[in-house]
Amino acid sequence: MERESDPSGGWRFAQCFGDKGEVEDITEADIISTVEFDHTGDYLATGDKGGRVVLFERNESKKGCEYKFHTEFQSHEPEFDYLKSLEIEEKINKIKWCRRQNAAHFLLSTNDKTIKLWKVFEKSLKVVAENNLSSDGFHPPPAGGVHPSLLSTTPAVGSGSSLRLPKLQHHDTIVAAVPRKIYANAHAYHINSISVNSDGETYISADDLRINLWNLNISDQSFNIVDIKPVNMEELTEVITSAEFHPINCNNFVYSSSKGTIKLADMRDSALCDHHAKHFEEEEDPSNKSFFSEIISSISDVKFSRDGRYILSRDYLTLKLWDVNMEKKPVKTISIHEHLRSKLCDLYENDCIFDKFEALWGPDGNKVLTGSYNNYFHIFDKEDDQNVVLQADKSAFKTKKAAGGKKGKGAGAAGAVGQINTDNVDFNKKILHASYHPRENTIAIAATNNLFIFSAQNAAGVPTL
To answer: How far is CA 248 from CA 130, 205, 226, in A?
Structure first.
């Protein structure tokens, strides 16, 4: 574990999980594919391409914001669809926590086809501490009110006086994970999103062409609430890229498309929500139109603010902030990859133009987070337009440490946008997945197989909003 600090933005590198250093040494199964804090922020879950889920628990014995290993379990296994001759990867696409109601944790995890509801709980292991074979000899029972046949020092055959019932004793406490429900065979295409409703009883799952509504307690039945599949697949012009429930109103949800549109739907209108209640789309500037326009306008992630007033969307070049009451254009557009506009042809050839970056809200509703290349990620404050750039890279921390702790350009430190080296971009290092703590300025960043924890703290070492 390494520790470095940087004064810019008050952000501080707190922790790193992951052993392997070089990208060449990392196996595909070790790459983290999703990160998610629970509703309290005391627990953190990661899923990887090997189908494993790892849970971390906040270390209360430490002064700052640190986490320790809690448990690990295999959530999904590779499968083969014999009807379609299709391999189904074990990669975990999304993890969502259900609100805690008792001592156990419940969380949903999904790969391309199957969603599972896991129960994670502490289980007491008991061993047999005493039984009939461990007797240290015969002890005659007391004489009062006992049958005469049992008064002799030698027990009568069949009397059962020397029989001792087994006794169990606590041996250890382990963290167990068991699948409570398996929601399968409801998606013909790859699942890209799951979102738990504010009612705590239902959730939605979205694939390329459909969104299904589930009851957490019913695994063999779901309701199709959005279906954009055309009668003739040759007429297909867009796919669903992300979906999320409203944080307060259990009847509203939002979903985005590859055409750069965001649609807000109300389940009270009709059983099938193909006719959206609101449509958010910004017309493209004709001067910027190119062969790649449709690809870079595709929205990779969409998120409601915690009060449900704003919607955050991420496409390849920008981060956009929408007011739910204003559909024509976003209230703010934040440039992330404008310096890559001249390199779109190269990005298309190496498939990086299809990278799906996530977008996140901070707990105060003012800060937003998204990732970039070279393991950079951006934290914006929508109130004062402050832009903090951090880098989640072990090699950068080592370079900075070797330089005597002096702040260098992009050396694992927070800084302004101008400090990013736009000429030498490593497209193999990218921050696609992250999670923001629900109550404080702490973030978890997935960088290939490493999990980085950053925290904004005051002088007393207490995380602040």
So the answer is: 55, 18, 21
The topology under which CATH files domain 8-110+185-456 is Methylamine Dehydrogenase; Chain H (2.130.10)
pLDDT at 277 over 50: yes
Mean predicted confidence (pLDDT) in 62-80: 89
Residue 2, φ and ψ in degrees, nearest 5? -120, 155
What is the C-alpha to C-alpha distance for residues 329 and 320, in angstroms, rounded to an integer? 9
DSSP secondary structure code for residue 110 in this structure: E
b/e 333-354 (16+ beta carbons within 10 angstroms → b): ebebbeebeeebeebeeeebbe
What is the chain's alpha carbon radius of gyration, rounded to the nearest angstrom? 28
- Cα-flanking dihedrals φ and ψ of residue 437, to 5°? -60, 135
Strands (E) across 51-192 are located at 52-58, 67-74, 79-81, 86-88, 94-97, 105-110, 115-130, 167-183
Long-range contacts, 68-71 (Cβ 8 Å, 24+): 69/17, 70/43, 70/175, 71/120, 71/175, 71/177
pLDDT at 31 over 80: yes
What are the domain boundaries of the chain?
8-110+185-456
pLDDT for the residue 419: 55
SS3 149: helix
3-state DSSP assignment of residue 331: coil
Residue 230, classified by CB atoms within 10 Å of its CB into exposed (0-12), middle (13-18) or buried (19+), is exposed
Amino acid at 68: K
Polymer length in residues for the chain: 465
Tell the residue number behind the tokens 């590198």, with chain if given: 13
